[in-house]
Amino acid sequence: MAKKKEATVEEKLRALYDLQLIDARVDQIRNVRGELPLEVEDLEDEVAGLNKRIEKLENDLSLVEDQIKAKKIQIEDSKAAIKKYSEQQKNVRNNREFNALSKEVEFQELEIQLADKNIKEYKAQIEQKTEVINTTKERLGERETHLKHKKSELDAILSETEKEEKALLKKSADFEKDIEERLVKAYKRIRNNVRNGLAVVPVERGASGGSYFTIPPQVQVEIAGRKKIIIDEHSGRILVDAELATEEQEKMSAIFSKL
After folding, report:
1. Pairing with 112, which of 6, 41, 57, 170 sits 20 to 30 Å away (CA)?
2. 58, 136, 164 from 125: Cα distances, Å
3. CA distance 233 to 17
């Protein structure tokens, strides 16, 4: 089997710059989406949290209402006991029995007073919890409306860009396969270390793209010669000459227009 011909430095530079153009377009698409996916996620978490809070408050409210019912039953039981003890007092044989029944009546009257006090406290709790529930529901309504708007905004952007992004990511993976592994690793390392994700840049007005540091004339000649891969000493990026960059931009633009 014939040995595969090794790519020239120029071919490697073109392949790396093509890969950069693809990845830069993916970055551009993602920048259009910006913080929207995170905003939607945060809003979904907030809405879920508010729903959970309302559920807990309503459960608490139900428990307080049950406590009021229990206290009302207790009051009725105490009233029945008072009636019973009062009837028994009519048939006592001595003062000791009468006083004992009087103490029972007094105890039940205190129980009624305490239960009435508890009911008032529970009703105050209900009022306070109901107010919190209403405020939380109002907040929930606002956040749900905001979430709906943001989801709609995100869906519109995704419908416009998702297909192109998937096609670009596939193309990026395909282009990587045609570049030797060590260069792909170097490219990705540089891309991860620079602010705008540009690892391969053309020389523009005597400096590397996006930089103000002038490249020495001799180095510019070497870059234009396309005989070796040159790294900018200031930005750490791989440099290509403007002519090569223009040719590859035109070629990739034609490919992008078909996606």
Report:
1. 57
2. 12, 16, 57
3. 18
pTM equals 0.60
Per residue in 171-227, pLDDT (tens digit) is 999 889 889 999 999 999 999 998 889 999 999 888 887 777 888 999 999 999 999
The edge-to-edge listing of strands for the beta sheet with 200-204 is: 207-208, 200-204, 238-240, 230-231
SS3 content of the chain, % helix, strand, coil (to 5): 75, 5, 20
Report pLDDT digits (tens) over 154-183: 998 888 888 888 999 999 998 898 899 999
Question: Can you give the three-state secondary structure of 74-92, one letter per residue?
Answer: HHHHHHHHHHHHHHHHCCC
d(CA 85, CA 102): 8
Which candidate, 236, 237, 232, places its Cα nearest to that of 220? 232
What's at 136, amino acid-wise? T
| DSSP code, position 235 | T
Q: Supply φ then ψ for residue 128, to 5 degrees.
A: -65, -45
